Amino acid sequence: MSDQAQTQTILRPSGAETYQEIPLPAGGTAVLTYNDLWLMIVCRNSMDGDWTRTRAAALMVTDPAKKRALADRLWRLDQQLGGLPVIPDNVLRLNLARAHLWFNERMVTDAKAG
Fold first, then answer.
1. CA distance 36 to 80
2. d(Cα 27, Cα 50) in Å, to the nearest integer?
3. Which pLDDT does position 110 carry in this prediction?
């Protein structure tokens, strides 16, 4: 089998795919999408982890209402859990540029109803 036949391409996430599920203290789980991951990366890397600044910045970019709603949700979840999950270094490196591009230029991808 050739090297080309063995190579698989990993598609870039559109944003609505599940990144991680986190158990909630009161039971149930919170689902984090790639949109959530990207916003967490932007908050931690460009806004020094300040959700107030991130929420304000979300109103000045493409798709402001949806990005602000995501920021509000993540801020509340951060308060509820006493912190959001750590982003592994390899995931951060892979998504850093993508997160900033998404935040500034791309629309929020809504979860598909199933």
1. 16
2. 27
3. 83
Note whether 74 and 84 are within 8 A (CB).
yes
**Closest by alpha carbon to 40, among 10, 20, 61?**
20
pTM of the predicted protein model: 0.86
pLDDT, mean of residues 2-13? 63
The number of CA neighbours under 13 Å toward the Cβ of 43 is: 27
DSSP string, 17-44: SEEEEEE-TTSSEEEEEHHHHHHHHHHH
Cα–chain-centroid distance for residue 2?
36
- pLDDT-derived band at 113 (thresholds 50, 70, 90) equals very low
Here the tokens at position 12 are: 């870039």
pLDDT tens by residue, 8-26: 666 788 899 999 999 999 9
Tokens in use for 53?
Answer: 């600044």
Residue 103: which of 48, 36, 49 has the closest Cα?
36
End-to-end CA gap in the chain: 38
